[in-house]
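Final report, results section. Input specification for complex C-07:
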Amino acid sequence: MSGNKKYVYDFEEGGEHLRRLLGGKGAGLAEMTRAGLPVPPGFTITTEACKEYYKRGPKFIDEIWPEIMEHFRKLEKKTGKKFGDKNNPLLVSVRSGAPVSMPGMMDTILNVGLNDETVEALARLTNNPRFAYDCYRRLIQMFGSIVMGIDRRKFEEALEEIKKKYGVKYDAELSAEAMKEVVKKFKEIYKKETGEDFPQDPFVQLRRAIETVFKSWNNPRAIKYREIHKIPHDMGTAVNVQMMVFGNFGWDSGTGVCFTRNPATGEKELYGEFLPNAQGEDVVAGIRTPYSIKDLKDRLPDVYKQLVKVAELLERHYKDMQDIEFTVEKGKLWLLQTRTGKRTAMAAIKIAVDMAREGIITKEEAIMRVKPEHIQQLLHRQIDPKAKEQHRPIARGLPASPGAAVGKVIFSSEEAEELGKRGEKVILVRPETTPEDIGGMAAAQGILTARGGMTSHAAVVARAMGKPAVVGAEMIHIDLEKEEFRVGDVVVKKGDVITIDGTAGEVYVGELPTIEPKLTSEALELLSWCDEYRKLGIRANADTPEEMRRALEFGAEGVGLTRTENMFVKGGRTDIVYEILLAETEEERRKALEKLIPLQKQDFKEILEVMDGKPVIVRLLDVQFYALVFADPEQLIEQYYKKKYEEGAGSEELMRLENLIHRVRAIRDADPQMGFRACRLGIVYPEVYEAQMRAAIEAAAELKKEGKNPILEIMVPGTAEPNELRFIRRIFEKVLKEVSEKYDVELDVKYGTMIESPRAALLADEMAEICDFFSFGTNDLTQFTFGWSRDDAERAFIHAYLKKKVLPYNPFQTLDDKGVAKLMEWAVKNARKVKPDIELGICGEHGGEPRSIEICHKVGLDYVSASPWRIPVARLVAAQAAIKEKQQKE
Amino acid sequence: MSGNKKYVYDFEEGGEHLRRLLGGKGAGLAEMTRAGLPVPPGFTITTEACKEYYKRGPKFIDEIWPEIMEHFRKLEKKTGKKFGDKNNPLLVSVRSGAPVSMPGMMDTILNVGLNDETVEALARLTNNPRFAYDCYRRLIQMFGSIVMGIDRRKFEEALEEIKKKYGVKYDAELSAEAMKEVVKKFKEIYKKETGEDFPQDPFVQLRRAIETVFKSWNNPRAIKYREIHKIPHDMGTAVNVQMMVFGNFGWDSGTGVCFTRNPATGEKELYGEFLPNAQGEDVVAGIRTPYSIKDLKDRLPDVYKQLVKVAELLERHYKDMQDIEFTVEKGKLWLLQTRTGKRTAMAAIKIAVDMAREGIITKEEAIMRVKPEHIQQLLHRQIDPKAKEQHRPIARGLPASPGAAVGKVIFSSEEAEELGKRGEKVILVRPETTPEDIGGMAAAQGILTARGGMTSHAAVVARAMGKPAVVGAEMIHIDLEKEEFRVGDVVVKKGDVITIDGTAGEVYVGELPTIEPKLTSEALELLSWCDEYRKLGIRANADTPEEMRRALEFGAEGVGLTRTENMFVKGGRTDIVYEILLAETEEERRKALEKLIPLQKQDFKEILEVMDGKPVIVRLLDVQFYALVFADPEQLIEQYYKKKYEEGAGSEELMRLENLIHRVRAIRDADPQMGFRACRLGIVYPEVYEAQMRAAIEAAAELKKEGKNPILEIMVPGTAEPNELRFIRRIFEKVLKEVSEKYDVELDVKYGTMIESPRAALLADEMAEICDFFSFGTNDLTQFTFGWSRDDAERAFIHAYLKKKVLPYNPFQTLDDKGVAKLMEWAVKNARKVKPDIELGICGEHGGEPRSIEICHKVGLDYVSASPWRIPVARLVAAQAAIKEKQQKE
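Structure output:
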């Protein structure tokens, strides 16, 4: 021993705070021991000893031995057993354990302490000579190969020979006598290969085992592992020496696994299995069937009581539901391992909430414990997990839109639509979808495509519709003529029922039972706690009264984005849009727009009524005007022309149409993302925005007259220049004044913009002067900041970027914290400098994505806005972000 | 007089520094007087007097009158004439003159001082009673209508009557006697309308005239004018009282206009005309023909000497070529007006250089004096200005690509190409052009289209080809079937010769003579001065050895951008590209690329040899790979497939083609600007960039072996993320090492990137760590910063934005100083923080645009890179920016 350095720690002396010195396993065993849990006693030789070992040669440090011996004597005292004792021998395991987990990389030797005499004692004590000799032969084999470097195959071949001799196939079938013969054979091999007898002195076994563990720190695979995982090579491993326990000492012994709560439902009850008079290996071998933990209550009430107590202790100590492995040796419970137990989403939420109620954890901890996926999972219809275990998917694709759906396979959208109308449940199966399939998709329960990515038409539309979809399932071969698809040998014909799992991206033949989506009472409780902690407000992106009602149910505090495009085309309004398009002068356009105003006013009234007392952001028209009615303007106008011609339209009307065709051709966008749309439209045709604003503001005025409390906010999309906002604001103020006078009410309507272009973000201070609020449109902002179109990126190169580690994640899914979030931060800072009370939010898709919501919190937004189904998750993540921030400050 | 305030200034007392007090005209007259120039003497009543006039009523300030009288007496003394004198009467003009020019808005009264007696004296002195009485009747008319408010038509009708009576058509044809009759008639009108006689007291005339000028400050049109031009209403006008001079006092008198240098050529010589014994009005009337100023030398040598002296004085004083109006009264030269003379581009440059050489101005001033347009104009073939005066354009369009072109009208691109091959000069006339017209455009002398804007296909391609083009000439109606076009009544048929002026956007019938473009020796001298002052380096965007040679002639110091796309397709290389595209594995792709390397190496050698010793930035492939050969990939591959099929290709080859079609379809860009191109290609198919780099670096190595000094810089396009640069840099370094070893030479090749996305600019510090240089690609950077596609913006909405003053200028032409330039500034600052010696330039189109070059200077770039023809302008503007900065610091 060098000076007064302490190289050996009893489990009672250690703990998590000494992880670097005692390794992960040693620290964990110490932690459990000190928590009063029944852990087989033992001690840990520190990583410092290992370092010293390498420093000196590598060479065993003789000075440590007395310190080890000292702790070993204590161990004997604690266990009441003695190393090498003929009646009650102590057996120990010698295990590695580095400060950083390196699973399976280093060596472990079990059953140290067995020799020709103690094996007999073990046989007597367990009343199982076969088991005792099996332990012994394992020790010789491990010690021989690991410590002494004998080729492992030599032992295996010898074992095979004896099994052949007795005509058995498995080791377990060998009798006690045969096992003794194996031991004899193994000792011969040992002697032949090493030139010496297998050491009968347990202390020699111990010392060599310890040295071997030190040595294994630098075996080639451990070095390789550290290189890959960037673990320093000079950390060293600790060595844990621990008493062996056996569950096969009789019928008051046994082995089991146990969850401290039900991992499926979260109920507070012991859950697991127990196999009496057996070791862990017997459970794995499956020769006997274990019984439920609950039966222990009657069968071994003492053990059950110990277990209940241990579960309580464990949960109090680890503050979470535990999954434990234990052994009962002569009625005494020993914990071999404990870890946080895996659980379903529903259980995770219930356990977190229950534990908080029980005072085991705080509300904050409960919130931090639940993952966004847990909440998300509750919100989609799922395939019953039990059913899933019994079935295999016939194909996999991309999980494009979550949830489960069951229905008859239909290959044509028209047919799907027809059947849908008749109330039939169908799954639309297509090579890929196009806008012409919209009707069929709407009528179907779910969508399955063979091609396309996460942003293919099918994926985008399905998500927007909230319909389960599996896309790009390339293994399915669709034959549209035969109306069938094949996966290998399996043929699925039109009308066959399939089940798709859009959450997992799986396809099953037949109908699998599904579970209704709902937020459990615990989830509702948890979310109400979240509301106490979060600083971010939560709004919804919702366009219809129905969507808004759902958003309110899920806890939305307002609407962050209402799109108005559909208000131009729904319910036969396209004829008016044609008129607007055909207008040749502003005068004519205004006349046509006049007809739209009362209709849209009604739309706005419905929306504002549902959201009464809560803010509603209305976004002005954000598409190219012609795109409202023409997906492919040229072609469709020409069709319209043909139709009119065939209907016998006059030459004047036809001439007007011809003009329209020319105009559309002249201004059709060369670029779908950066063309003539958004507020550019409002600058060139101000009368369109004026009409929209009039409809919305009149709706608010009428509701106010009726005693309601409409809170309207008007949002200008796609700005890049403050003058755009000034120009449109003049119209806004004119309309606001006119409407206020017309209805004789005082109206407080906010005016703001989406921040979607980098320039808008860069000029945030100047923009803020003209605005009451900003809403970051991070979809476009991400596109323009990178100069990447999302469609092209996700189809053509994002995959390679992630694979080649050029990007850590897809910035279209998670906010780009290096670029886009920096722009947002800049904009927030500069806007607040000019107008401290400006209202700042986000309405891009990122607003519903957990990691992005956290960024929004950090950036300092006032709220996030997400689609209704993502609102519960947003509430959770917003609370988690606030708690994390608080913790970092503490 | 209120206190000791001075209300009247002799011309000798004033100057430009008192402009606010004396008005523009008064300050100018004082300036000339004090410079010793022969200006008819006089004095100025200040704007303060005018303000006082309004303060008091408006009412004339009696206290000022003695001060005016005092100055008037001095005036009489100076002139040796007396107001109202029967022998030698003083006549004066009374003119308005505000601090800000308001041309024609306020009143002027001439010939003040004439009455029944002095008119006779004037008749005697001029020996021209007709003239004297004409002056008198004008005074009565002016005074009557302006001062007394008599309807002007009353005088005009009376004059008409008398003309009718004498049977003449023009005033000038009236005899002296007739003119006396007019005076009589006018006095009668005056009496009838005002109830009093026309005032015979010159001082009464003077006082009323002064008051009237004050009054005219607030006449309705002056108020309106100030409102429009945002001129404060409380500024007031000054009043100038000045001796009248007359050029018709005899044959030693006369009137003329004169440039101090030749405004067409810039030669240092008096240039202008003189009409003896005449007033300015006579010149305008065109009754006699004036003779050249040069003839004065012989005819009135004294006057000529005076004029030479005055010209010298004027140029020394105003430091620029002057355009003067003068009158000679009895051999005495009087300057009536002087202003900076208009001149041609060639003259502007020569005058600036000559004046600097003469020591009149400094080199800096010479540089500041020349405008970018002057240099630009010298670089395009122009229509001879003389010929232009004699012809009228039949149509106008947008000046899409500057220069003049003459040729036969041809309506088909195929035919234009055919004729072009035979050496015929043609102008391609099309409704609009498409990529199929490229061949015809290349063969034509110039292009004329009826549709399209400044960024239409025709405009963009013509500019790129350096061919004159007029586009969007909507007044021409093309009939492709008849092969003719009409403008109103004019019909131009196929084969008719026309001349187009792409600088002005004009179309002429017939062949107009043109002037060869060249830089004059003075221009070359001036540009060499510019090189002394400018801090910005000047490089060229050039792709071929020919373009680079031209760039060097124009003064390029390197190549800022060589595009490499054409190296894939020129000279039958498309077959190799097909192979690359058809390759299914990286292995196959590499094999095909191997064939390209030696060919491209040759291209690079040629380029590096021309630019020996100067840096050459080579940009790696920047288009979608498929776009190299397929404008419309799907359609064209299908055509290729059909062709191969018809050629009898084997089924295996066809299958591969089918696969290609599928692949192309799968990855065709949804967005033309933000799709799968630029360095994304180099990440997904690194072997393509590797091949390009190998070709370029091997070229440099071979030249170095030959004793040359190639300076190669490799540029990665379209980056948005530092890891892209790291990824490609690893390949770059591998290739550099391999080539260095292969050739055994030490190679110093720079590695850098274009900054084209906002994100690249935002992450400039991290990008700089990986780069030796940046080059700002401001075309894309502008598109992404705004979120606007240039094509769509310029076609659909920029026009409205400029008209509605939402934007001050088109950011695609001039760098957006609020947004894009801010990003550049940020990037420059952060890049230099990390790497102070990083080389920073610009290669977007803005690099050749004057206002943008100034911004580049301010932002602190090292160089700008522009197309060869814009290099001289860039040299000038860069010098001007440096000088401006210096001046601001001083």
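Residues 586-610 of chain B form the longest helix (25 residues). Chain B is about 50% helix and 15% strand. This concludes the modelling results for the funded period.
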